[in-house]
Known about the structure:
The complex is a heterodimer. Chain A has strands spanning 5-7, 10-13, 19-24, 31-37, 44-50, 53-56, 65-68, 75-79, 88-95, 105-106, 110-114.
Amino acid sequence: EAGVTQFPSHSVIEKGQTVTLRCDPISGHDNLYWYRRVMGKEIKFLLHFVKESKQDESGMPNNRFLAERTGGTYSTLKVQPAELEDSGVYFCASSQDRVWWTEAFFGQGTRLTVV
Amino acid sequence: TQLLEQSPQFLSIQEGENLTVYCNSSSVFSSLQWYRQEPGEGPVLLVTVVTGGEVKKLKRLTFQFGDARKDSSLHITAAQPGDTGLYLCAGGPEADTDKLIFGTGTRLQVFP
């Protein structure tokens, strides 16, 4: 069974450009999460989808970040325009049920560098 | 804001030694998870503890949740080079959310 897959693995963009990160969850997992780790800091929650609906987006830093999950399958996280402080590793995770009932599986992450 | 402090931040030991990693907070968590992360990969769940005072063992790893559900520890017996990695605790979820609060991490290096 394929795990959580994220694209691209690495992205280097200039300040002001747009970047779109993609996450393919494990098939059948209704719950999809985005987290990120900025340099020297702990991993922090961004948002949670249940199917195509945003269940919790309290961790989204500002309106330059837009997450979508069309059809309840893969998800995209767009950063527009990117700023230097957006650099970090963005993780996606998926779970079959709520995280206190079942395990969440993480992707390998997308390392975003804004120069 | 709930925070989880891990100590030590870095740990370098020889194969065969024992070690303990601590995860502390002033907040109460409904559960506590431990993950291990290797370079270029995402965190992988090791264990979830949900009851105050709970102890779980996974081969040479022993996990304990504090009685007050504010802290946890991970003890590794006879560490091996394969135990090398970043260990993360994560508390949660917060009430009515699925948000996990991650700790600051402990980077472990086990030398042969």
